[in-house]
Write a structure and sequence with these properties.
CATH class of the largest domain: Alpha Beta
Number of domains: 2
Radius of gyration: 21 Å
CATH architecture of the largest domain: 3-Layer(aba) Sandwich
Number of helices: 14
Order of helices and strands: EHEEEHEHEHEHEHEHEHEHEHEHEHHH
């Protein structure tokens, strides 16, 4: 940007679409909140469009939040929200760049390109999630193409996904990872109160945690593997179970006669971090991911961790970190047996090294700067479709 463009050379006017808004409760919104707070602190003018049903309105940590009305419908609600956001940006906005989150929102890219350079971020293959019907999955996959081909600059949170999108659509897709707040406080007292209510104690339980628990998260694999251990330790499952029809019933049947406790999604993130700190082992058996902030946070909290071996996980884990074959109950049972029997001091050393690994690579400050570079590239290339 330059002063000739009518504003200070180092000040960029940025609008973010594609999320439910901030403050965040997880998922894409957590990414949006993390980078927009830093953009505002760096002196940029930042606007976040969100849903009146889930978002604040007004100024949040220097970020202008525009919450728009929408409807409570699984399919039409998100569509109408993004259309309303794009319409507001075109009719009343004054931005240098629009950052659109989520490939499933690619249908508004052609509209936004009428006035703005557009940066898109693919937050993972949403069409692989079991919560969507077959036709919805096909449509979401098709929107990947719009979000890459028609964007001024395209990004993805996973290097694996960026390479696949670049191969599929024949243009560069920049990999900019998700991050973690390295010094975010954990509420260990709140976590211990929750554990006490369940009859659990710090250091004795396995932990599975996800905002939305659907079959792609692999919780069923973990419970089946737990049942194959001769003396299964307590397992705490945190997250909403209602996102795939029949899945909650399946999990509860698998957990019958096993020491498994289910807790709904916790919006109090410090308590979740406290649970990570107190876990004997955090297990991440996901079969589909983009780049998991939950996995990063577990490593940052020095929780002993066992993850599935999907490329999206192994690409962010330290070399030699323990993994198991995704979806393989026997492999997970063997991994649990090995890690539960491992020397505690060796596990503590491994966990501390993993935190250092994360700290050196996935801090939000550097990630926000990476997006700033992409915005400036988009501005320079704004006249080309």
């Amino acid at each position: 940007m330059s002063a000739a463009d009518g504003h200070a050379a180092d000040r960029v006017r940025i609008a973010h679409l594609g999320s439910k808004g901030i403050p965040s409760k997880g998922g894409t919104e957590r990414v949006v909140e993390a980078i927009t707070r830093r953009q505002a602190a760096a002196g940029h003018s930042v606007t976040v469009y969100g849903s009146r049903r889930a978002s604040a309105s007004g100024m949040v940590a220097g970020v202008r939040v525009l919450s728009l009305p929408t409807v409570a419908h699984k399919y039409m609600g998100p569509v109408l929200l993004q259309v309303a956001g794009a319409a507001h940006a075109l009719a009343r906005g004054d931005y240098d760049v629009v950052h659109l989150h989520g490939a499933e929102n690619g249908f508004v890219v052609p509209l936004l390109r009428l006035c703005y350079p557009v940066v898109t971020t693919n937050h993972g293959p949403a069409y692989l999630r079991d919560k969507w019907s077959g036709p919805a999955k096909a449509l979401i996959r098709a929107l990947d193409g719009l979000s890459v081909r028609l964007a001024t600059r395209a990004t993805a949170v996973s290097a694996v996904q960026a390479a696949e999108l670049a191969r599929r659509y024949g243009r560069e897709v920049v990999a900019i990872p998700n991050g973690v707040d390295l010094d975010e406080p954990a509420d260990e007292e709140g976590a211990e109160r929750l554990l006490a209510g369940l009859g659990l104690r710090r250091g004795e339980y396995l932990l599975f945690a996800a905002a939305r628990v659907d079959p792609t998260k692999g919780c069923h694999t973990l419970i089946e593997a737990l049942g194959r251990l001769p003396e299964p330790p307590p397992l705490l499952v945190v997250g909403d179970l209602f996102h795939a029809p029949g899945y909650e019933e399946r999990l509860r049947k698998l957990a019958h006669d096993l020491p498994v406790s289910f807790v709904p999604r916790l919006d109090a993130k410090p308590v979740v971090l406290g649970l990570l700190r107190g876990a004997r082992l955090f297990v991440f058996p996901s079969e589909v991911e983009a780049m998991s902030m939950m996995l990063l946070e577990a490593l940052c909290q020095e929780a002993p961790t066992l993850a599935s071996d999907i490329p999206e996980n192994t690409s962010i884990l330290p070399p030699g970190f323990p993994v198991f074959r995704a979806g393989d109950v026997d492999a997970l049972a063997a991994g649990l047996t090995e890690l539960l029997a491992a020397d505690p001091e060796a596990r503590r050393h491994e966990s501390a090294a993993a935190r250092d690994w994360v700290a050196a690579r996935y801090g939000w400050d550097e990630i926000a700067r990476s997006y700033d570079v992409v915005y400036r590239e988009a501005w320079a290339a704004r006249t080309s479709l």
